[in-house]
Amino acid sequence: xxxxxxxxxxxxxxxxxxxxxxxxxxxxxxxxxxxxxxxxxxxxxxxxxxxxxxxxxxxxxxxxxxxxxxxxxxxxxxxxxxxxxxxxxxxxxxxxxxxxxxxxxxxxxxxxxxxxxxxxxxxxxxxxxxxxxxxxxxxxxxxxxxxxxxxxxxxxxxxxxxxxxxxxxxxxxxxxxxxxxxxxxxxxxxxxxxxxxxxxxxxxxxxxxxxxxxxxxxxxxxxxxx
Length: 226
Known about the structure:
The chain has 226 residues and is of the alpha+beta class. It has a domain of 136 residues: Butyryl-CoA Dehydrogenase, subunit A, domain 3. The protein contains 5 helices and 5 strands. Strands 4-3-2-1-5 form a 5-stranded antiparallel sheet. Strand 2 and strand 3 form a beta hairpin. Helix 1 packs antiparallel against helix 4. It is elongated, with a radius of gyration of 24 Å.
């Protein structure tokens, strides 16, 4: 029996917990993408927006010294009036002009739903790993590794859906947004994919039975015939 196996599982699980933390941070925060409109001449304020899977936040930025070379609003870190609201397709009482287009609604709902699947897979995988520690049931590590791998795949699909949504929004003539950038929530989602997917595969390799190093090990481990 490989005596270092429990240590390997614990180290891999520690990295997985970091990935899950990044996953939760990406899902619940509103900084996936930042949008900037075109600036008008001699303007002293502009309205930028940043959004996540569930909410849209707009910010009226007051520019003290507008530069003629600046063609977009921002950065979003500048001081200004801040307002956040949930997307209309999640809460019918709220309004969101940015996501009024049917295509954008479909992208937004799809990205949020796939992210929820990712969170669900991560939670089930964590339960399996914790049960394997408590009950000494190593066979639970195999399904746990698959759940983590699925969680990583789901969050990267959600990232791609969101990326396509932002790209279509910028290219559309129905919106005033001319510039975009991805923010730290987007980076958290990408990092969560790498950690969950890689560590899920690593956990599966650890959970697999050790191959015999010498040809006679298999014969020595065989049960004697009666």
